[in-house]
């Protein structure tokens, strides 16, 4: 896939079906991972539409689309005041790419778009949480410049928000 085939834009409520489809795939993968470790967690198969609406309203959440305008990935983020003494933090709630489109830098492009958004707004840091066993997620965040502490919390301070590297 060429770079020109992927476009990014802010999440819209009309994206619910495409985002929900990817969400279901990710939840199923997570359930499989939990079952392998004999861990049980009550997870919903459906993303609540009001949950998505709250992120669509932020203008800091984005979708990745391929040429035919199909959604192949998304990142949900919102500004939160005062996390770890940072006055303005952009919390990355969810980063997901359709299984058929992974390993094509789409996740990295989504994170870079959020970094661009943060750089253009009064954001002091980016934070997210990740699953302990999710090596690809950890690798993605490190590649994007995040510091991963204890393999669970990742953050990026304002001085590193620039997408120029």
Helical stretch tally: 4
CATH topology name: Aminopeptidase
Radius of gyration: 15 Å
Question: What is the overall shape?
Answer: globular
What is the rounded distance between the termini?
23 Å
* CATH hierarchy class name: Alpha Beta
Largest sheet: 7 strands, mixed
Number of strands: 7
CATH superfamily: Gcn5-related N-acetyltransferase (GNAT)
Mean pLDDT value = 83
Number of domains: 1
Give the SSE order as H and E letters. Answer: EHHEEEHEHEE
Helix content: 25-40%
Strands side by side in the biggest sheet: 1-2-3-4-5-7-6
Strand content: 25-35%
Structural class category: alpha+beta
User: Which runs of at least 5 residues are low in confidence (pLDDT < 50)?
Assistant: none
CATH architecture classification: 3-Layer(aba) Sandwich
Describe it:
There is one protein chain. The radius of gyration is 15 Å and the shape is globular. It has a single domain, classed as Aminopeptidase (3-Layer(aba) Sandwich), CATH 3.40.630. Helices cover 32% and strands 28% of the residues. A seven-stranded mixed sheet has the order 1-2-3-4-5-7-6, sandwiched between helices. By secondary structure, it is α+β, with helices and mostly antiparallel strands. It has helices at residues 16-36, 49-56, 106-120, 135-143, and strands at 7-10, 62-65, 71-83, 86-97, 125-129, 147-149, 153-157. The chain starts with 6 loop residues before the first strand and ends in an 8-residue tail after the last strand. The chain has four helices and seven strands, in the order βααβββαβαββ.
Q: Brief overview, please?
A:
With 165 residues, the protein is an alpha+beta fold.
């Amino acid at each position: 896939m060429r770079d020109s085939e992927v476009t990014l834009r802010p999440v819209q409520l009309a994206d619910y079906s495409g985002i929900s489809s990817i969400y279901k795939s990710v939840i199923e993968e997570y359930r499989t991972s939990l079952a392998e470790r004999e861990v049980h967690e009550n997870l919903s198969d459906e993303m609540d539409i009001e949950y998505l609406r709250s992120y669509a309203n932020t203008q800091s959440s984005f979708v990745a689309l391929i040429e035919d305008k199909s959604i192949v990935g998304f990142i949900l983020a919102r500004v939160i005041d005062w996390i770890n003494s940072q006055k303005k933090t952009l919390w990355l709630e969810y980063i997901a790419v359709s299984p058929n489109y992974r390993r094509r830098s789409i996740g990295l492009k989504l994170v870079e778009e959020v970094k661009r958004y943060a750089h253009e707004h009064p954001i002091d840091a980016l934070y997210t949480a990740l699953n302990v066993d999710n090596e690809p997620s950890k690798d993605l965040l490190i590649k994007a410049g995040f510091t991963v502490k204890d393999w669970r919390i990742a953050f990026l301070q304002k001085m590193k928000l620039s997408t120029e590297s």
